[in-house]
Design a protein that fits this description.
The protein has 230 residues and is mainly alpha-helical. The protein has two domains: 30 residues; 198 residues, no CATH class. Helices cover 69% and strands 0% of the residues. Helix 2 runs parallel beside helix 6, helix 6 runs antiparallel to helix 8 and helix 8 packs antiparallel against helix 9.
């Protein structure tokens, strides 16, 4: 091995050691290859479940005229804060949390909880199709592409309960439950609060939707996760 290759290899080992030490210092698990593949398999399966249930219910509901107004009149005047769309979309990062906080049994339990919550929400979406109390803006200066992408795939009918809130609560909540570092637990809780606020400030949900999402998360957690994960 040439001196240059030795230097490169040594640098990579140092970087890996520092990254591992930092992660362990704040309470993160460093997943091995087997855990990553295990998680990826569940991630793909749950994505299919979500697309079939959520997408199917949303498409069917979009053809129905009997939409319910599940909101308070004052919510028509809720502030619209476009910048919070990035907090809203951070849900995709939330979905990766189990990889760094949970073991295989806990990941399996969370996956089963996800399926139950999604199926229950799908039934409610069909029984109680809803509408937003405000009209979505056609253009959002500075954030147009993001909102166009969101509105294309997320029709405003699968509102109660908010699965965005349910998923965020389940995934962040399970991470907080196993985490022992107070600063990290605080950061995760703050992230959850910001996500709850974001669904209103980007005009995707209402107060009642949030309450329903929290209730669904709590019920699913007690019914499935606690029994499997212990």
């Amino acid at each position: 091995m040439t001196p240059l290759l030795q230097i490169i290899e040594f640098r990579e080992l140092v970087c890996q050691y520092l990254a591992t030490s930092w992660a362990q210092g704040i309470g993160l698990r460093i997943p091995d290859r087997d855990t990553v593949l295990f998680f990826a398999r569940y991630y793909l399966q749950l994505s299919v479940v979500f697309l079939l249930v959520y997408g199917g219910a949303n498409y069917f509901t979009s053809t129905r005229p009997d939409l319910n107004a599940l909101y308070f009149d004052w919510e028509r005047h809720t502030a619209f804060v476009p910048g919070f769309i990035y907090v809203y979309l951070s849900i995709f990062l939330v979905f990766l949390l189990p990889l760094f906080f949970l073991d295989k049994r806990q990941i399996r339990a969370l996956a089963a909880t996800f399926v139950l919550a999604t199926l229950i929400a799908g039934v409610i979406f069909l029984l109680l199709p809803a509408e937003l109390p405000f009209v979505r803006p056609e253009t959002v200066p500075g954030h147009g592409f993001v909102f166009r992408w969101l509105y294309r795939f997320e029709l405003p009918h699968n509102l109660f309960p908010s699965l965005h809130v349910t998923y965020a609560t389940l995934f962040i909540g399970t991470a907080i439950h196993v985490e022992t570092s107070t600063p990290l637990r605080t950061a995760l809780f703050a992230w959850l609060l910001l996500l709850l606020v974001s669904v209103i400030l980007v005009r995707q949900h209402t107060i009642i939707d949030i309450a329903g999402g929290l209730a669904l998360a709590a019920a699913s957690y007690r019914a499935v996760y606690r029994r499997i994960a212990g």
